FAD-dependent oxidoreductase
Amino acid sequence: MRRVLIVGASIAGPALAWWLHRYSFEVTVVERAPALRQGGYKIDIRGAALDVVERMGLKDRLTGLETDMRFMSFVNSAGRRLVDVRADLFMGRGEADLEVMRGDLSQLLYDETRATVDYRFGDTIVELDPATGAVSFEHAEPETFDLVIGADGLHSTVRRLAFGGDVVHDLDHLVAIATVPNHLELDRWELIYSVPGRTVNLYSTGRSADAKVLFLFGADQKYAGRELEILNTTFRGAGWETDRLLDAVAVSDDFYFDTVSQVHLDRYAVDRVGLVGDAAYCPSFASGQGTSLALVGAYVLAGELSRSEPAHAFATYEQLMRPYVERNLKLGRDNLGRMISKSPLQSWVGAMVLRVLPKLPMKDALVAKMTQPIHDAARAIELPVYS
């Protein structure tokens, strides 16, 4: 039995732990946070990732956790809805695709693995020898593992210790997300307010009494320690409900703020150390595919490790994942440009196109053409069947 340390307990880490336990590995997961991280945004599970959760026997459970979003509306500065569009149409969601909250998926994966995996919260690694698998922790005593896998996200500690170099590519945008009171009493409804260079997204799902707000804006400035200041400077006085939402964000207990970035790596492993999920190939939230890449990457990495020794397994894992990753990295870059308008005219034209689209006789063909890049990227890998 080989001992594996996974660093990170969000999505990729517990998913990888699920598969590795199935293949009789002894798995430890260490997570810096003191407990499982709740919150987050709604996420899509598409294409090959749907096949993975079905092979895990979790598809029905996830279907029961769906957000059940009904409509999306563009609003103007006075709060008037300019256009209402079915949520699945706007997001390019196919009939089989699933949309759930990140926290719900994370909790499900943790619940499925907590009895068979050694979870250690409130700790992280501080030193790592890729050649031997020797690890020093911030709090626990040093240990040596046969394999160490970084599933610790965009700002991966494992990647920094084992790979070095600057592989995070900022896309010159910042994003902020928080849970706020549902003062507009939204019911499975999403509102989008757009002004040049800035977008606000507010919604409430069928499973939550609160709402989620997302602020997205173009910026290339340093933000460490100035998150709320930058957010207020950018959005205060921008119209609609922005001021009230900013006040709510300031007292939210799950405020998230970061760059919109991607990870570009020449290799996903070195010696005894591998990477999975955002740590290896973050496509940015703009792709809508980060969760799917994490689930598929966990499946492929565990399957290859079950078949052969690490060096060969890591090489095959990268060979299988690389085209899929590159397709989704491109999708993330392309999508970002469509998420923020450059002028009031662009915002208005976009809203009018969505208003007219459902009434056109060829609407299904037009929608299929518009959303084809999403579905092509989601299916850009042929999953092996592992025993």
Q: What stands out?
A: Residues 50 and 97 are 7 Å apart (CA to CA). The two ends are 17 Å apart (CA to CA).
